[in-house]
Design brief:
8-stranded mixed β-sheet, globular, 10 helices, alpha+beta, 18% strand, Alpha-Beta Plaits
Length: 336
């Protein structure tokens, strides 16, 4: 299935335009390189040398195999790919072949899961061998040149890759260091503290870095403060405000779908609409999470919780009092 050169979405044979973003699909020919913004994760373990001294080669291979499998599972759970294993290190990329708007957050969450998976492995190693492995992780976001995803060529090169590797090398065991761009793009979804700018090998100037403290499980929509002016979407904003006016006047539902490539400004457009109508309407916001388990009813759950305050179940039962399946609906929606 050919992949879109713009967003990486795979499309059925015969499609001339991408079914996700509408970009033209080029005829398959010689592989082409693409420039794109991705987030790179480097993870390495400390203590593997001692492991090799104390265990025989077969046992060492088995332990490292468990480690690599656990790291790959954590990366792929969040939508990334493991590009390669380098000795004891893992290099993963988020944004190849398909770009997601939240790739930096996905990468940070994957790093937390990688560290947790290593701890579970350590529980067995400490019990059986008296050993402990600890991970150092570096994460950076930036432009790279990657092979054509449609041809299976996903190798990424660029300064962003080098900086991610240097951040990993500068991290202490058990520590996750973030590049400045990753920290900024992850925004309100993470808690991080600045560390002293790092003098990294190959960089002429010290590189700003951040130590990851925590990843927040649930961040409300539209929490990031924006200082940049809203430009280039005035016509679309007028259409949205017109739909709102029609709904208010006719007391009827108006459904508007905003479609566009990642990063084009869909969330900013919706945010501007919310700001413009908030004094004329009770605004409820429900988000469709991009991935995860048990998230089918997540948007409804968010809306009901905003509407119901401290007693969302009671409020939902009041709204659906005439429905025979009210208990089933309340259980499924609020369990999201």
């Amino acid at each position: 299935m050919p992949a879109c050169p713009q967003c990486g979405q795979e499309n059925p044979a015969g499609f001339r335009l991408c079914g996700m973003c509408g970009a033209p699909l080029e005829a398959l020919g010689s592989p082409r390189e693409v420039r794109k913004t991705v987030t790179i994760v480097f993870a390495d373990v400390t203590g593997s040398t001692a492991l090799g001294e104390l265990l025989d080669p077969e046992a060492t291979r088995r332990v490292m195999g468990w480690y690599f499998d656990a790291m790959q599972t954590a990366v792929e759970r969040h939508g990334g790919i493991v590009e390669k294993f380098i000795g004891d290190a893992v290099m993963a990329v988020f944004g190849i072949p398909q770009v997601h708007e939240d790739d930096p957050v996905r990468a940070v969450r994957a790093a937390i899961d990688m560290r947790a998976a290593l701890q579970r492995l350590n529980d067995e190693l400490e019990r059986d061998e008296g050993l402990e492995l600890r991970a150092r992780i570096g994460i950076n976001t930036g432009e790279v040149v990657a092979g054509d995803a449609a041809d299976g060529q996903r190798f990424a090169t660029g300064d962003a890759v080098n900086v991610a590797a240097r951040l990993e090398q500068a991290a202490a065991p058990g520590e996750i260091l973030l590049g400045d761009a990753t920290r900024a793009l992850a925004g309100e979804a993470i808690v991080a503290e600045p560390v002293e700018a790092l003098a990294l090998k190959g960089k002429s100037e010290p590189v700003p870095a951040w130590r990851l403290i925590d990843v927040l499980a649930d961040v409300p929509a539209f929490t990031r403060h924006l200082d940049t002016p809203f430009v280039g979407r005035s016509d679309e904003l007028v259409l949205l405000e017109r739909a709102f006016t029609d709904a208010a006047q006719e007391r009827a539902v108006e459904l508007v779908t905003v479609v566009g490539a990642p990063g084009i400004g869909k969330s900013r457009l919706a945010r501007e609409l919310v700001g413009n109508v908030r004094d004329r309407a009770h605004v409820l916001i429900g988000r469709c999470l991009p991935y995860g388990e048990g998230i089918t009813y997540w948007p409804l759950a968010e809306v009901v919780k905003q509407l119901g305050g401290e007693t969302p179940a009671a409020r939902l039962r009041e709204i659906l009092a005439a429905d025979e399946q009210v208990d089933l609906v309340v259980d499924r929606v609020l369990s999201a």
